[in-house]
Amino acid sequence: xxxxxxxxxxxxxxxxxxxxxxxxxxxxxxxxxxxxxxxxxxxxxxxxxxxxxxxxxxxxxxxxxxxxxxxxxxxxxxxxxxxxxxxxxxxxxxxxxxxxxxxxxxxxxxxxxxxxxxxxxxxxxxxxxxxxxxxxxxxxxxxxxxx
Amino acid sequence: xxxxxxxxxxxxxxxxxxxxxxxxxxxxxxxxxxxxxxxxxxxxxxxxxxxxxxxxxxxxxxxxxxxxxxxxxxxxxxxxxxxxxxxxxxxxxxxxxxxxxxxxxxxxxxxxxxxxxxxxxxxxxxxxxxxxxxxxxxxxxxxxxxxxxxxxxxxxxxxxxxxxxxxxxxxxxxxxxxxxxxxxxxxxx
Lengths: 147, 189
Fold this sequence. Notes:
By secondary structure, chain A is α+β, with helices and mostly antiparallel strands. Chain A has helices spanning 9-13, 19-31, 33-50, 61-78, 81-118; strands spanning 121-122, 125-131, 136-140, 143-146.
């Protein structure tokens, strides 16, 4: 069976051929000098790529990463379910408090208005409204009306 | 002190141990930097993308499942960031020589007066090789980087690039042949 020796080059260089295929391949190299040169050139290319100078991270890298993580953690906390729940409860409690406070103030105001109403002043005449069981007596200073 | 395996460290981190996370960062930062750099050829950008990778590890630690090796998982994340950046660059179409082929430091020609002829030839080969590598199609380039620079096994590469083992081996061979053809045109080999 005819072998595609070009397609076997990498496997040969990576020592990934069966012993039988390896013999066939090496035999082909012996009998074909140009092919042998090609294999050596590719081997050299692979070694050069392999020996590419290795980079290292800058001295600020870890510090910058730490900063980004801290920022992300604070941001994420604001949107965690736990925080949202506690925030919701806080807002609801505050809203209830203000409603109740407002309600109390309204009642207070109403009560004082009622008192003011009982002693309203009409054109300088003070009217006292007295509630009786059967009738309402409006006593106006200087005048008496029975209803 | 025996180094813990990656899979143990990630499990510890998933359980809340931040020191395990730090160890993983130390272990992989340079490796992944070299990997990402081969895509973008820009040191600052490579570090930014590397930070994105580790930030994702921090925020999505529970995405890792024990069925795969940690190294393949983290390489996949880093590779995705690098490739996304490449796609953005292509869309922007703001090419310059330094972005395409070399970073600025690579253009500085070192003083070779005290070097042997062999070393000078090697430098020349390295320079042309870098250009040929950058011109490879992305799929081939990724595989060459993972195999010949990162020295990962075929199995690991197969998982990262999500291709069958046979396809990975075939692509490595074709990528190397393409590099050879490119360098032959430049008469370096």
